[in-house]
């Protein structure tokens, strides 16, 4: 399986939906089509910035009609892939980026009921897919437009910091709401699971939606690193590029020769530290505590969301299956021990030095829904 989630979102979408680049509409024309077509949502954002860091255009939003398809695939990009394969993509076009400042693009949006940030490979996909089992829920699982393009546009490909200006926050709000459009009459709630490195923009997202509760899911970084080394990730694509400087907090050139384990450990340490700094604004959940018995409390205490017993039972069915298998043909098997065995003792020590202090603080934090002393 190609790791679509590891590549720039606009490149993936343009490859899957070649017609999307054939038509570039004015903002007024784009608004007209968005409002006229109930299944029209943004699939990706092209920052239109060249390798030299110079703009090649004003930035573009890539839109397509996905009809009434419910987000059930384990990631947004695999929804696009499945629809493209099966002929399920309708009308498609581009608009300029600044259409996101036009509130007319909001056609029956569902305001988010919860945000999910995470360290990667830590039960976040499982939790999001469990939520997505209910037909009442629109779950944006690592939405393509928020994977890279949006942030690259606002930072000029990480040549400047992201600023929480009214304009930038407005564009973010409208993008999230446009993705979470009600396309089926029974849809009442929406949830957004961000790509892991968006954790570094957690404060920005919470400023845009101050009333939306958020959780941060994390796991022993040794096991996360082992998983990434097996399957790659978006942060590995960024290694040796300007974005890597933002991810590590170091000059991006330093990441070119940096070992993969150190590179990942430095990034994951920043996620953990930022989540710890967020305090009570974000509920923390260790992977070891994510199970069917705790899931109701994750929703109730973490996301302030209390579905009925029947709906909870439906969602908890997901815990029986491998979360990255959309066919539900593979049962879940805990591979923590195998992942621990794949990392050398020297690399474990390096990871512990970089990530251990913040990990320990999170495990015992008052913001942890299941603190270390109560882990089950």
UniProtKB/TrEMBL annotation:
Query: What top-level branch of life does the organism fall under?
Result: Bacteria
Per its record, how is this protein called by name? Sulfotransferase family protein
Q: Which organism is it from?
A: Alteraurantiacibacter buctensis
């Amino acid at each position: 399986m190609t790791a679509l989630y590891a590549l720039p979102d606009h490149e993936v979408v343009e490859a899957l939906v070649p017609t999307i680049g054939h038509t570039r509409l004015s903002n007024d024309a784009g608004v007209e089509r968005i409002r006229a077509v109930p299944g029209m949502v943004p699939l990706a954002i092209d920052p239109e910035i060249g390798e030299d860091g110079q703009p090649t255009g004003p930035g573009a939003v890539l839109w397509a009609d996905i009809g009434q398809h419910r987000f059930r695939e384990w990631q947004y990009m695999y929804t696009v892939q499945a629809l493209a394969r099966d002929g399920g993509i309708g009308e498609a076009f581009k608009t300029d980026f600044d259409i996101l400042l036009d509130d007319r693009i909001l056609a029956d949006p569902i305001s988010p009921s919860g945000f999910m940030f995470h360290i990667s490979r830590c039960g976040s996909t499982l939790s999001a897919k469990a939520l997505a089992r209910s037909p009442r829920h629109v779950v944006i699982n690592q939405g393509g437009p928020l994977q890279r393009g949006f942030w690259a546009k606002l930072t000029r490909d990480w040549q400047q910091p992201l600023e929480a200006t009214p304009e930038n926050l407005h564009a973010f709000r409208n993008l999230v709401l446009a993705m979470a459009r009600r396309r089926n009459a029974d849809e009442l709630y929406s949830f957004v699971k961000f790509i892991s490195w968006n954790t570094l923009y957690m404060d920005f997202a919470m400023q845009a939606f101050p009333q939306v509760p958020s959780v941060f899911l994390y796991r022993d970084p040794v096991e996360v690193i082992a998983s990434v080394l097996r399957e790659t990730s978006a942060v590995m694509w960024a290694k040796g590029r300007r974005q890597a400087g933002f991810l590590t907090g170091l000059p991006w050139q330093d990441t070119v020769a940096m070992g993969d384990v150190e590179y990942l450990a430095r990034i994951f340490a920043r996620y953990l530290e930022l989540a710890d700094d967020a305090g009570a604004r974000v509920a923390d959940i260790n992977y070891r505590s994510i199970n069917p018995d705790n899931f109701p409390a994750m929703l109730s205490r973490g996301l302030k969301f209390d579905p009925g017993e029947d709906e909870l039972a439906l969602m908890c069915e997901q815990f029986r299956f491998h979360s990255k298998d959309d066919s539900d043909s593979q049962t879940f098997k805990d591979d923590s021990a195998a992942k621990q065995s794949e990392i050398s003792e020297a690399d474990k020590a390096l990871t512990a030095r970089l990530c251990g202090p913040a990990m320990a603080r999170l495990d015992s934090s008052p913001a942890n829904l299941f603190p270390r002393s109560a882990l089950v």
